[in-house]
Design brief:
The chain is an alpha/beta fold. It is 48% helix and 16% strand. The chain has eleven helices and ten strands. The strands form two sheets. It has a six-stranded mixed sheet with strand order 1-2-3-5-7-10, sandwiched between helices. Strands 4-6-8-9 form a four-stranded mixed sheet. It is globular. Bound molecules: octanoyl-coenzyme A. Residues 22-23, 25, 62-67, 69, 77, 80-81, 84, 105, 107-109, 131-132, 135, 139-141 line the site of octanoyl-coenzyme A.
């Protein structure tokens, strides 16, 4: 792939957005490559957790590629927006948990990419924002929707209307990121969290993700009923038997992901 790198360390998949000269800006080719790699990961049962990061040290992703967007017609822009939305939906609904390790600019499409991940860990140098109105456009990769759901309508509207960048501390205060770490320990922190998740029962972890994602769009009665179904489903797994037996026998569980 020309625009991103994929490597696997044990059961952790690491996607590196790799256009550092353009601060990893998302062009159509990068989105297509991300789509392809996500399809592969979704069916790779040996990958238990995914980390997404930006190549270079300046940016996670500084947005959609402005040079590529500059001359788009309205129909082309709509289709580019739909491509980004499709890929980010696929990311959000990937069976495995996804951690965004954000080391610099996460602007526009970069902030939208981070928001489609399950967990966001920011370096203390990270900057966030939806600066689209400065360019004469709205967010187009579902930023208006995911931002409102993450930080609430009022704060989202301020960030969208004003378009300013915010630093990692403000992003943490608003609930946009889960934690802030020194830049030099960003990837180690993401890896440590990923390893801990890998050590848990994989089916249960994936069902937790599905329960939150599906349940958030349901009314509470339907969502709790859905949770009861998947809780029951856990008892059809070997891992439930192993996890509970290990507790009773006072030993560490050895999960097989079945
Ligand atoms: N697209 C293309 N190239 C970019 C982008 C981008 N988003 N961001 C940075 N670059 C390029 C610069 O042009 C520059 O290239 P070159 O060296 O060839 O001149 C290189 O990356 C380095 O950037 P700077 O020299 O500008 O670095 P600075 O440290 O001075 O500034 C900033 C860093 C503040 C991040 C600055 O580059 C910037 O403001 N970038 C644009 C940020 C932005 O506006 N992002 C939002 C884009 S719009 C968007 O994401 C909408 C998503 C939905 C699209 C839906 C389509 C329908």
């Amino acid at each position: 792939m020309d625009n991103l790198l994929y490597e696997k360390i044990d059961e952790i998949g690491i996607i590196t957005m790799n256009r550092p000269k353009s601060l990893n800006a998302l062009n159509a080719a990068t989105l297509q490559e991300l789509d392809t790699i996500l399809s592969d990961i979704a069916t790779d049962f040996s990958t238990k957790v995914v980390i997404i990061r930006g190549g270079g040290d300046k940016a996670f992703v500084a947005g959609a590629d402005i040079t590529e967007m500059q001359t788009l017609t309205a129909l082309e822009a709509r289709s580019f927006g739909k491509l980004g939305q499709k890929v980010f939906n696929k990311l959000e609904n990937l069976p495995q948990p996804v951690i965004a390790a954000i080391q610099g600019f996460a602007l526009g499409g970069g902030c939208e990419l981070a928001m489609a991940c399950d967990i966001r860990i920011a370096s203390d140098k990270a900057k966030f924002g939806q600066p689209e109105v400065i360019l004469g456009v709205t967010p187009g990769f579902a930023g208006t929707q995911r931002l409102s759901r993450l930080v609430g309508k009022g704060i989202a509207k301020e960030l969208l209307f004003v378009g300013d960048q915010i630093d990692a501390i403000e992003a943490y205060r608003l609930g946009l990121v889960n934690r802030i770490v020194p830049a030099e320990s960003l990837i180690d922190t993401a890896m440590a969290m990923a390893k801990k998740i890998v050590s848990r029962a994989p089916v249960a972890v994936q069902l937790c993700k599905a329960a939150v994602n599906e349940g958030m769009d349901m009314d509470l009665d339907s969502a709790t009923a859905y949770e009861a179904e998947i809780f029951g489903l856990c008892f059809a797994t070997e891992d439930q038997k192993e996890g509970m037996a290990a507790f009773v026998e006072k030993r560490k569980a050895n999960f097989v992901g079945k």
